[in-house]
């Protein structure tokens, strides 16, 4: 495994079934951005998340510097991935008004929060994410 910094998108479902696929595809234009679709059988828990994180990291061609979370249910996996890197950041784009423990934890832990606005093109909606990716030296627009 190389240590090139990566941005890992944790998709809540297959890309073609994801309501925000246009935003994900916009970010995936950058070579250092990769998407991870969920396992066929959803499992949760600290131990399972740690094992899944190890598997994901083993398959990556770089080190997760940013983990983008769209659904609070995947927060345990996101946290496990972020904990593997010294300077890794969690970005959270979960739905406003969600009232779950995982949503609250993800929102508190997130270094960057972004919404699910439908206004403008995906490139415009992703502007804050692109700016931070550039600051971190991961990707350029």
Strand and helix map with partners:
Elements: E1 5-10, H1 21-27, E2 33-36, H2 46-59, E3 63-69, H3 75-83, E4 89-92, H4 101-109, E5 112-113, H5 122-125, H6 127-135
Parallel strand pairs: 1-2, 1-3, 3-4, 4-5
Would you write up a description of this structure?
- The chain is an alpha/beta fold and 141 residues long.
- It has one domain: Rossmann fold, CATH 3.40.50.2000.
- A 5-stranded parallel beta sheet has the order 2-1-3-4-5, with helices on one face.
- The protein is globular.
Gross morphology is: globular
Strand element count: 5
What count of helical segments does DSSP give?
A: 6
How big a fraction of the residues is strand? 15-25%
Structural class by SSE content = alpha/beta
CATH H-tier superfamily:
Glycogen Phosphorylase B
Largest sheet: 5 strands, parallel
Low-confidence stretches: none
Mean pLDDT rating: 86
Q: Write the CATH fold name.
A: Rossmann fold
First-residue to last-residue Cα separation? 25 Å
How many domains? The number is 1
Order of helices and strands: EHEHEHEHEHH
Multimerization state? single chain
Helix content, binned percent: 25-40%
The strand order across the widest sheet is 2-1-3-4-5
Radius of gyration: 14 Å
Please report the first level of CATH classification, the CATH class. Answer: Alpha Beta
Specify the CATH architecture. 3-Layer(aba) Sandwich
Q: How is this structure best summarized?
A:
It is built from six helices and five strands; from the N terminus they run E-H-E-H-E-H-E-H-E-H-H. By secondary structure, the protein is an alpha/beta fold. It has a five-stranded parallel β-sheet, covered by helices on one side.
């Amino acid at each position: 495994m190389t240590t090139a910094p990566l941005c890992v998108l944790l998709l809540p479902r297959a890309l073609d079934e994801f309501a925000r696929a246009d935003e994900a595809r916009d970010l995936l234009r950058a070579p250092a951005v990769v998407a991870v679709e969920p396992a066929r059988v959803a499992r949760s828990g600290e131990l399972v998340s740690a094992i899944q994180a190890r598997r994901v990291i083993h398959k990556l061609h770089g080190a997760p510097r940013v983990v983008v979370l769209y659904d609070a249910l995947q927060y345990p996996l996101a946290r496990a991935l972020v904990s593997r890197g010294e300077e890794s950041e969690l970005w959270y784009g979960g739905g406003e008004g969600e009232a779950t423990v995982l949503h609250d934890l993800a929102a508190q832990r997130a270094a960057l929060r972004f919404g699910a606005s439908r206004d403008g093109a995906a490139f415009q909606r992703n502007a804050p994410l692109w700016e931070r990716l550039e600051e971190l030296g991961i990707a350029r627009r």
